[in-house]
Amino acid sequence: MHLTATSRKTLVIILVLVCVGCAALASRQLDAQYGKAAVTNRAAPASDNLLSDHYNKHIKPVIEARCVVCHACYDSPCQLNMTSVAGIERGASKEKVYEGSRLLAAQPNRLFIDAVTPQQWRERGFYPVLNERQQSSEANTQASVLAQLLLLKQQHPLPDSKILPQQFDFSLNREQHCPTTEEFEHYAASQPLAGMPYGLPGLSTEEHQLLLNWLAQGAAMPDTAALPDDQLAEVNKLEQWLNADNLNMQLSARYIYEHLFTSHLYFSALHTEQQRPQFYNLVRSKTPPGKPVEVIAARRPFDAPGVKRVYYRLQPVVSTLVNKTHQPYDINADLLAKWQQWFVEADYQVSALPGYEPEVAANPLTAFVQLPVNARYRFMLERAENTIMGYIKGPVCRGQVALNVINDHFWVYFVDPELATASDVEAFYLSQQNNLRLPAEDNSSAMAANWLAYAKRQGNYLRARSNFMNNALKDGQHLTTDGIWNGDGNNHNASLTVFRHFDNATVVKGLIGEPPKTAWVIDYVLLERIHYLLVAGFDVYGNYGHQLMTRLYMDFLRMEGESNFLAFLPPDIRRSEFKDWYQKSGPELTKFIEGDINPFNQPSGIRFKTDTPKAELYQLLQQHLADVQPQRYQLQNSTLSNKSKALLQRLGQIKGQSAAILPELTMIMLQPENGKDAELFTLVRNSAHFNVNSLFAEENNRNPAQDNMTLVHGLLGSYPNAFWRVQEADLAQLVAQAEQISSEQDYTKLLDNFGVRRSAADFWAFSDKLNQLFMRRHPVDSGWLDYNRLENR
Fold first, then answer.
1. Which residue has the higher pLDDT, 1 or 89?
2. How far apart, in whole angstroms, are the C-alpha atoms of residue 532 and residue 300?
3. Cβ 164 vs Cβ 156: under 8 Å
4. For residue 514, which of 530, 497, 500 has the smallest C-alpha distance?
5. Is the pLDDT of residue 8 over 90?
């Protein structure tokens, strides 16, 4: 039967009305059976030691290993964030956080910030997943969404097939079904295979019974434990330093906070190598040190706080750590000595604190003009990996709006601080404050039409910058590798590698993989603007205009970093190389490339000896930074035989169509023949593009013939697409199969032999071992992986 548009609309309205009517009827029935819902009906926190011990030893580990792997951060289905007691008590919501089409900014709903009590969350539209009616064993299971989802899975386990049927939707922007208790009967009838864990094997009988018994008994969860005295002493010391009364320190603390608000701070002196540290969030509080923290719930870290004096406080992280948001930041004696040198002992004077007006606060070059540029740049460089990691793991968790603007694999270098903070350079930065304004000053409900003004100012800046460099680099002065920061001879943050995996990304210290197509050289103002565009100034709850302007502006920042790298090449190579990076670009970008936006024409100070100057430049930079290259991801760290290492190396040499068929992020568990613990590896697909300048239809710019792979020792990335498991004795077979892939059928055969699909009967046993090895070997910077991107192939 063919339905007209009007008929379809009418049918949808009827179905909605039927569902609403069913929910209302179900609500009355539940009220009659178990009383009316109210948050006050919920059991009090587990205050006695036996209940707390039971939760921490038996319940929490199951929730982490089976629930948190899909339910964490903003991309939790139905916003059900199960990483903490507060998240479980908050419950779920039918609203999506990632909604790129909204015309107005949405209300932020950040755990521990925008609301605290369950009642406050109910007033914001969140509904409970635990029973909030009368507390009895029957009510605690029959009136609990969480219990019903577990029971639904037991009643309807995964189909017995390697590839799950089409009714399982694993797409990124899939429709979410978020049933309340009242709607659950209809949900179960229409979505019988949507029990939890969704699209993965069910819990074991023991795990299922553990959780169900806990739910039936009231789902008691303990309050947060008090911090030990040694932690309190370190917290107090840092808070006292940050909250000194003089204006220099007040402005410095504001700067430090606006750059570390997404990080997890810890005191390395207080933990052993095999122990996970106590982490802290740096927050703005209405209250001074010594009093309970009252978080200022501003939309962005530089928004007006609404109080006369802001205090910067450490708030213990009580959530389970997930890799996709975890940014560990070590507070140690060496770092604090540097902060003291840069922000306290430096010769400068703050005459008045800047305001919080958007045109001031959203532009760090204006807000912090009284702080020495050397202090600001040194602060970000000291932990450059963390600075760049912010726009990957920070306020977005994931987000293609910030990531389809970068290539899949590139290297990052930094301008030497002595060069970047010279007096004439600092004066130039000062003269460009207006041109360097950022879209964040237009708040979270921006109009995309404002983009033209920012594009014009960016063009003005690039022209002025090229003129400045042309004048500064003459009379025998040229750019050489000496202008690149060498980490002061001991800092591994001197170079970074960025891998993009479609809608998420990874940044690591060092130059990983084969020389990439593009690279960036970042100076102070570029590093600062990236942070304020994509971290401090980016609002995941913002409207379409805000997100579009962020994406468009990042195009120019990317090209700025690329142009800085090209400036080290001979002049005749720069433009041809840039054109090669932007093949098949639209007319606007072609005009930009061929125009006078970037007319730097001084000769390179490097005497190239080959006809492949880019490759030669990469080699020179590698030599320049050889002393500060970390070894963590190098294949040589493996204890496998040389023969096995050589075989693994071949996986990283797969190119073209074979690479294009492989997943973007494959995590491999290899069991050595010598009986030692399994070794972990990650195979990354680097997807090639003709250009990364198009907003939509990215697939039209893909260039699969140039795809390649990078193999690293250890786990890299947060969102695995596939798992492989191999015995060392079978490694040659795995490699041979991977090299011969030319079709989807070939890849299916490889998975039949070596894959651990999401449908595998032993999926959870494999998952547990993988995560446990990861966290045991890297207790500081590891976290639970996220399974929302696992393929169904």
1. 89
2. 10
3. no
4. 497
5. no
- Pull the structure tokens for residue 59: 């319940």
Query: Among all chains, which residue has been given the structure tokens 């409900």?
Result: 445
Q: Which residue type, as a one-letter code, is found at position 655?
A: K
Angle at 678 between CA 677 and CA 680, to 5 degrees: 135
Tokens of 606: 């490097």
Summary mean pLDDT of the chain: 91
Closest C-alpha among 296, 325, 333, 338 to residue 313: 296
Beginning with the edge strand found earlier in the chain, give each strand of the sheet holding 708-713 in spatial order: 708-713, 679-686, 665-671, 722-727
3-state secondary structure of 711: strand
Among 714, 631, 647, CA closest to 679? 714
CA–CA separation, 779 vs 464, rounded Å?
47
For residue 390, CA distances in Å to 291, 496, 530, 535, 544 come to: 29, 14, 10, 6, 21
CA 646 remoteness from chain centre = 33
Q: Which domains does the chain have, with CATH numbers?
A: 5-216 (no CATH), 228-353 (no CATH), 356-629 (no CATH), 635-777 (3.30.1050)
Two structure tokens written together for 251:
């402005």
- What is the side-by-side strand order in the sheet with 280-285? 311-316, 280-285, 264-266, 328-330
Which position has the higher pLDDT, 491 or 550? 491
Contacting residues for 671 by C-beta, under 8 A, at least 6 apart: 678, 725, 726, 727, 728
Q: Is the pLDDT of residue 225 over 50?
A: yes
What is the H or E stretch that residue 727 is in? Answer: strand 722-727
Helices 373-382 and 423-431, interaxial angle, to 10°? 100
